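Order emerges. As here.
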Amino acid sequence: MSYELFIGLRYLKAKRKSTFISIITFISTAGVALGVMALIIVLAVMTGFEEDLKEKILGTNAHVVVLKSSGGIENYPSLMDRLKRENGVVAATPFIYSQVMLSTGNNVSGVVLRGIDTKTDPLVTNLHRSLVEGKLGDLDRAPLPLAGQEAPKPGIIIGKELSRNLNIYTGDTINVISPLGNITPLGMIPKMKQFRVVGTFNTGMFEYDSTLAYVGLAEAQEFLSLGDVVTGIQLRVADVYRTGEMVQRINKGLGFPYHARDWMQMNKNILFALKTEKMVMFIILTLIVLVAAFGIASTLFMVVLEKTKDIAILKSMGASGRSIMKIFVLEGLIIGIAGTTIGVASGLLVAFNLEPIVGGIQKLTGFELFSKDVYYLDHFPSKVVLSDVALISVTAVIISLVATLYPSWQASRLPPAEALRYE
């Protein structure tokens, strides 16, 4: 151990006459620890939100969607075969997309109606895993009834929140109304058809669970009078973070009037907002560490004033100004490293147990800290990324180091003769 480090450690120990300095040292260490802990917890929550949201988006929507600029796609089986030969494409499925209204009794709600192929959709989306009741096969058309029997109503699957809003459940009948109805001498008359609710799904994302409804592809084509036409083709790819390159290849290969979009383009607003919020929160919470750094600087200034005679004696014994500066830099750095270590340990402890902690607080206070209606999710996510922890730790130590430079430099410039003149 160098004598600079030895002396720096001795200066950190409390003495009867330097109790006030020890209190300030403790406050500075606690300030660094609090800032680091807050940064780790907040970034873990922000990362958890981002990852959970991406999982919900990719579970409900396809990785890449191929559409036609005007109208629907007629020759979709051949187009699907061509797209599946693209490098990186795992599976493909056709879909129909339309805005309709659902009504039952006095309850009415506007929703997005999706027509899906029940055989190929499970290869592309995770809708089948989100089902609470029923199965995708229930959307397939039932066999034609015998003479004199009533034709069975086609099936529809709705979200859990939509089921609650409309007060309808599995087995109930619901009216599906399309604004694009039939043209008559009296004008446009909306088209209406009765469907039977054969299942409900819960994606965990309020926006999807309250605005989506699924029917079979053939039923959607018939109800919307599309013939053998679909809205587009959904693709599942091997690498979800390289969809941009694939979209460029598909657009170049297919040409006009086809165009492809990936999941990042379709959700760029919310993904950009999450990334921006994470960056802003990092900057704001770093200010806590900066405030603690001022405490470290104040502590060193007071130590320098108290140890003026000691500094003069050390210089008289041959210690260089660089060594004196090193003593106080090490002292401040020890405070910063100690605070950072405590902050990292406590931050990780809270981040890894955030769900039960939030649940306990909600039970004790009776106040809902996390509303799924606002945040689109049904639980409190938290994900610790080691690179974030490393960045926070290095940033805190660097800020602490910078805070020690000026008071340490002032100590190194102290003339020993002036300090010992009245001793």
Observations:
- The beta strands are 64-68, 89-104, 107-116, 131-133, 155-159, 173-184, 187-201, 212-216, 232-237, 258-262.
